[in-house]
From TrEMBL:
Record-given protein name: TatD DNase family protein
Keywords: Hydrolase, Metal-binding
Pfam families in the record: TatD_DNase
Key word Cell cycle present: no
SUPFAM superfamilies linked to this entry: Metallo-dependent hydrolases
CDD domains for the chain: TatD_DNAse
Top-rank taxon, per record: Bacteria
GO cellular component assignments: cytosol
Native source organism of the sequence: Alicyclobacillus sacchari
Annotated InterPro entries: DNase_TatD-rel_CS, Metal_Hydrolase, TatD-like, TatD/YcfH-like
């Protein structure tokens, strides 16, 4: 069984001392494809550096909403240059975050829209962060029609059924992470069962949101198998089938990733 962790922040400082061991443990669990999303230009360069050093590991470049306040016009030119790297497969992690509100909401929206337009210019999909900002995120996705052009994924989906329906209508993929495994996440598991098979993805969001029974501990890509187990059970299918389908979907979305 081969697994694809579509979202793991391996450039995070929590992996500073044992990154090679983390990747080795992932491979031992069958996780042979990973995408590292950036949160700003510095982490974009770090993600690319890691991807260059490890087979099957890829990078995304983007400005996270928590970094939006410091975004400069010249940053978009640099991001576009980095997007041409052979191991950069997406623009992300981008989006809106109204929980932390680290930047004015209008600024977050401008930064997200600029990056969507950049993604369309370079022909790469987007990785979308959404926290307590669903209506505005969906409005921007609808305005730009990115889901039906270069495509994109709603990372760590944790919304209601109406939001799921609208994101699917806009052409987006839906990715589940550790929260789908939590004991009180029955509603989220029910939604995982409703995602069309060709739009489903899995991830860890390492080092965050470690799945049950490791909740509260540092997460890592090896644990994406626990997400696959839970999603497969919710959908009434084998974990092998879930792994194969989500892998196929990830390769379709992140078309630069080698099969």
């Amino acid at each position: 069984m081969r697994l694809f962790d579509t979202h793991c922040h391996l450039m995070d400082g929590q992996f500073g001392d044992d990154l090679d061991s983390v990747i080795a443990r992932a491979r031992a669990e069958g996780v042979d494809r990973m995408v590292i999303p950036a949160v700003d230009l510095a982490t974009a360069r770090a993600a690319i550096h890691i991807a260059e050093a490890h087979e099957g590991v890829y990078a995304a470049v983007g400005i996270h909403p928590e970094s939006a306040a410091s975004a400069r016009i010249e940053d978009y030119d640099e991001m576009e240059r980095l997007a041409g790297h052979e191991k950069v497969v997406a623009i992300g992690e981008i989006g809106l975050d109204y929980y932390w509100d680290s930047a004015p909401r209008s600024v977050q929206q401008e930064v997200m829209e600029r990056q969507i337009e950049l993604a369309k210019r370079v022909g790469l999909p987007i990785i979308v962060h959404n926290r307590e900002s669903t209506e505005d995120v969906i409005a921007l996705l609808a305005k730009t029609q990115v889901g039906t052009s270069v495509g994109g994924v709603m990372h760590c989906f944790n919304e209601r059924e109406e939001a799921l329906r609208r994101c699917l209508e806009l052409g987006m993929y839906i990715s589940f992470a550790g929260p789908v495994t939590f004991k009180k996440s029955d509603d989220l598991r029910a939604l995982a069962a409703k995602v069309p098979s060709d739009r489903l993805l899995i991830e860890t969001d390492s080092p965050y949101l470690s799945p049950h029974p490791f909740r509260g501990k540092r997460n890592e890509p090896a644990r994406v198998k626990l997400v696959a187990d839970t999603v497969a059970y919710a959908r009434g299918e084998s974990v092998q089938a879930c792994a194969e389908q989500t892998r196929e979907n990830a390769h379709r979305l992140f078309w630069k990733v080698k099969p």
